[in-house]
Amino acid sequence: MATKKVTVTIPEDLLEEVRAEAAEHGLSAYIAEALRLRRDRDRLRELVDWLEEEHGPITEDERAAALAELDDIDAEHERRRKARTRGADAA
């Protein structure tokens, strides 16, 4: 995969936290993954907006179910991140 080097400005305290989280996987890989997650959520928001235009607003029950599913996805992502970190620590 082709890559391109860019310069970004990040608050110092956030950078310290991210570097600690990124550990051996590297800061660039961590940030690329975070950007992919954000892009996916933005696309999902666009889909929801389109669906609401086509079918009307979602109900509170539908919204709660969607948020619960996102929480589950986030929890699974966190579980996998921790498993990768534990695997890296064992190596």
Description:
This protein has helices at 12-22, 27-55, 60-90. It is mostly helical. It has one domain (17-90). Helix 1 (12-22) packs across helix 2.
Compact description:
The protein has helices at 12-22, 27-55, 60-90. With 91 residues, it is mainly α.
What Rg do the Cα atoms give? 17 Å
Number of helices: 3
Strand share of the residues? under 5%
- The chain-level mean pLDDT equals 91
Report the biggest beta sheet as strand number plus sense, adding barrel if it closes: none
| Total DSSP E strands | 0
What is the percent of helical residues? over 70%
Keywords:
single chain, mainly alpha, 0% strand, extended
What are the SSEs and their pairings?
Blueprint: H1 12-22, H2 27-55, H3 60-90
Helix pairs in contact: 1-2
